[in-house]
Specification:
Elements: H1 87-106, H2 108-123, H3 137-153, E1 155-160, H4 162-166, H5 178-182, E2 183-186, E3 189-193, H6 201-212, H7 215-218, H8 237-244, E4 249-252, E5 255-258, E6 270-275, E7 290-294, E8 303-306, E9 322-323, H9 330-333, E10 337-338, E11 345-346, H10 350-358, E12 374-378, H11 384-387, E13 388-393, H12 403-417, E14 420-423
Parallel strand pairs: 13-14
Antiparallel strand pairs: 1-6, 1-7, 2-3, 3-5, 4-5, 6-12, 7-13, 8-9, 8-12, 10-11
Helix pairs in contact: 1-8
Length: about 425
């Protein structure tokens, strides 16, 4: 009887002969276990299934974890105004400079026109133009452009006392302004202590607010408290002032209270001078006969003022400020002012001295008067290694006391920061 499932197969072919050339030996006859495929030999019989057995038992032993050194404790976060780099402050400063440069650019032509008028007035006082009612237009334009180029090529400097900087080894990597050094918090309030050569803290803070923010900014809507710094994109005056303005200043003993709790001390400017007179001891020896010479890359985004901004000339609500691309406008920005210390009227000197140095080519003597200064404000970090070209130190201020030690510490400082060091008399 045929196996089940084989009834549909075709009939088996006749048996092949077992002898003769080309014949294969006969295949062994084994019982079928199923239908073979056509043209394939019959399948082999199944072997007996393997006996199932449980897997061997493996005993587990507890392995002690490896001994690891304890992690170093995480230091507590520094206050925002103590951080070496503060991205939020950097963004605020960038936004401020961008907005002010845009506003100053809009005033470029009127500022240049006013400066040309002042220049002509000054030139007509000179003997070579005696009897002239007007300087020829092309000549006036040539002189103006020469003065502006010489202003742009002048060194940016920061004067300092060598004794204060190098009596002991100076290991600082960045230059800090007074707000970074002197702001503390007491009972949740921000306190600015007196210090440095800027006078009383409260007077200095008010002066800085007035010369940083133009009059039309002062009437801006109340600042919106920032949530997480500034949003991307250009910002308005109110949003910038929310972190840059100190708020109302309350005078106290050797300190003042700053009432803007969102104020970020890192956003304030670093004060420099433009040594337009090529003076032998930097822009203003008032602050010391030693000085840093900054790299020229800082000039383009600095903002420039005639005279020391601590004077009333820049505290009247009308900001007198020029950009690097329009430095010639400083001729028209010079004005008569009253000193904050009641010294009386300060003579109009900037314009005359600019003419003497940047047109006539005279190197001017050292100045101890703040009205001779052309001040430059840098908004951003100032790293000695990255932003200082060279240092010039002078023993004048300390009258030679401990000069060998001061000189050695200055050499160490210059070597560590990759700065050239020079000594002058």
């Amino acid at each position: 009887m045929p196996l089940l499932g084989t009834h549909r197969l075709p009939p088996e072919p006749p048996a092949r002969p077992t002898h003769g050339p080309g014949n294969m030996p006969p295949l062994p006859q084994t019982p079928l276990t199923g239908a073979p495929k056509m043209g394939m030999p019959a399948p082999q019989p199944l072997t007996a299934p393997a006996a199932l057995a449980p897997p061997p038992i493996v005993r587990c032993f507890r392995v002690a974890p490896p001994m690891m050194a304890p992690l170093a404790p995480t230091p507590p976060p520094k206050p925002a105004w103590m951080a070496a780099r503060n991205p939020s402050a950097h963004i605020v400063q960038q936004q401020y400079v961008d907005l002010r440069l845009e506003e100053l650019e809009a005033n470029r032509k009127p500022g240049r026109k006013a400066a040309l008028a002042v220049l002509q007035e000054l030139l007509l006082r000179q003997p070579r133009y005696a009897g002239h009612k007007k300087v020829p237009g092309k000549e006036l334009q040539r002189i103006y452009e020469q003065i502006e180029r010489n202003l742009q090529s002048a060194d940016l400097t920061i004067n300092f006392m060598a004794e204060a900087w190098f009596t002991s080894e100076n290991t600082y990597e960045t230059y800090t302004q007074m707000y970074q050094r002197n702001v503390t918090t007491v009972d949740g309030k921000m306190i600015l202590k007196d210090g440095g050569t800027g006078g009383a803290a409260g007077v200095r803070a008010v002066a800085d607010n007035n010369i940083t923010f133009p009059e039309h900014w002062q009437g801006a809507p109340p600042p919106v408290p920032p949530r997480r710094g500034l949003s991307p994109g250009p910002q308005g005056a109110g949003r910038i002032m929310a972190q840059m303005h100190t708020g109302k200043v309350e005078e106290g003993k050797n300190a003042c209270t700053l009432n803007n709790r969102h104020f970020n001390p890192n956003t304030k400017q670093i004060f420099m001078g433009l040594n337009y007179g090529r003076r032998p001891h930097g822009s203003s020896a008032t602050y010391g006969h030693s000085y840093l010479v900054l790299k020229s890359s800082l000039k383009a985004r600095a903002l420039y003022y005639p005279g020391d901004t601590f004077l009333a000339v820049n505290r009247t609500g009308v900001i007198r400020q020029a950009s690097y691309d329009n430095l010639g406008a400083l001729l028209a920005l010079d004005a008569t002012a009253t000193s904050v210390w009641g010294l009386g009227e300060v003579t109009k000197r900037n314009s005359l001295e600019i003419l003497q140095s940047c047109y006539e080519g005279n190197a001017l003597p050292d100045s101890m008067g703040m009205e001779d200064l052309l001040e430059a404000h840098h908004f951003g970090e100032l790293r000695f290694r990255d932003h200082v070209d060279h240092i010039v130190i002078s023993p004048t201020d300390n009258q030679g006391k401990n000069w060998p030690a001061i000189l050695e510490n200055a050499r160490k400082f210059a070597t560590r920061n990759g700065i050239k060091l020079y000594q002058t008399s």
